[in-house]
Specification:
Layout (H helix, E strand, L loop, with lengths): L2 H7 L2 E2 L3 E5 H12 L12 E4 L5 E2 H14 L3
Helix pairs in contact: 2-3
């Protein structure tokens, strides 16, 4: 991995969502991480995520998948 790729991977983002629909957060995470996410119309509901400090892409993805697990998706 080049230095530029490492820097981009460690780039930090603010990951705060208040009352946001799950599909919108999934789209954000997909665009942020360049990962393909597959979900159907059963993924619904609004959630709030508050992260006190910016997260790198890997941590943001882990937080999102933790939310899905907690909600039994």
């Amino acid at each position: 991995m080049s230095a530029a790729e490492k820097e981009k991977e460690n780039e930090r983002v603010v990951f705060n969502f208040v009352g946001v629909e799950l599909p919108a957060i999934a789209k954000f995470v997909s665009e942020l991480t360049s990962k393909n996410l597959i979900f159907d119309d059963q993924l619904k509901g609004k959630i709030t995520i508050v992260a006190p400090s910016p997260l790198n892409k890997a941590d943001a993805f882990r937080l999102f998948t933790s939310v899905l697990e907690i909600l039994s998706y």
